[in-house]
Task: structure prediction
Amino acid sequence: MKMKMSFRWYGEDDPVTLEYISQIPGMRSIVSAVYDVKPGEVWSEGSLAKIKRNCEAHGLVFDVVESIPVHEDIKLGRENADKLIDVYCENIRRCAKYGVKCITYNFMPVFDWTRTQLDKRANDGSTSLVMYMDQLKGLDPLTDDIHLPGWDSSYTQLEVRGLINAYSALGEEGLWKNLETFLKKVIPVAQQCGVKMAIHPDDPPYPIFNLPRIITCEKNLDRMLSIVDSPANSLCLCTGSLGCAKSNDVVSMVKKYSAVGRIAFMHIRNVKLMEDGSFEERAHLSSCGSLDIGEIVRVLAKNGYDGYVRPDHGRMIWGESGKPGYGLYDRALGATYLNGLFEAYEKIYG
Ligand code: DNO
Result:
């Protein structure tokens, strides 16, 4: 197949082993990262070499990194940002040396994805991640001692408050400026090493707790891609992240950006949107949620998409327990469903 099917693996501590992953039909690539250092530090070549070796021992290719985290000081444009960007570039070079072709990252202030519950039970007994607006309402990290699932637990409440205040002062245009500085240094290095940088959209794609969020909609994706007009400056188009804002037409975004070769990585999952903006993560099948996954794959195949694809968050089913969103069974079902769609559409479009 043209597209490259991949699976996220959290390293040797992941209960989902490389052996299990290799047993999923059509599985090609491993999406992983070096987890033994903090953001802003250099990744050891030994760690990268080990991931590569482990993958190859199971007939898998380690060619996608998710993520090299962007240090908050880079996003905030603080004094040591330049030095931290140099470290980032060094990490890109090192990844490339061990065969990595695509690196995912995000530019979300303080928190990565945000949900209000990680184990919402559906009628069929499966559980999944959800965001319920009424659970979110009234919460204020500046005054309450809260910790939402998905947030980086290495910050104290006090540090989180400091960061939130710094970002509020920075605002959206300040964040854009710091993204521009980052991209103008990082993309030429990636290009030189044959690596595509794939920015992950903000999840969910709207401001949370007054924090600026910029990778949210078509207009902003256009702006981001135009900062450095190179295929090395590409998107990780996450259907579930962009798809939880009603105003985003995910199919048309996939169509537009795959036509111009600016999608390096597709995260594919389905979400069910509610009237009040709440959403539930669902099984991958189109009929299980609000997104037309079949149409998304059709459009990709029609445009000859040959980048990476991974089934994103799965539900917990069949009694499995583990890292929320990252169990084996439902993601394997997702991969198989996506492989089926791609096989059919790639055959039709050649
Ligand atoms: C969530 C993931 C994100 C993603 C980062 C990329 O499950 O899609 O955490 O890895 O935002 O930097």
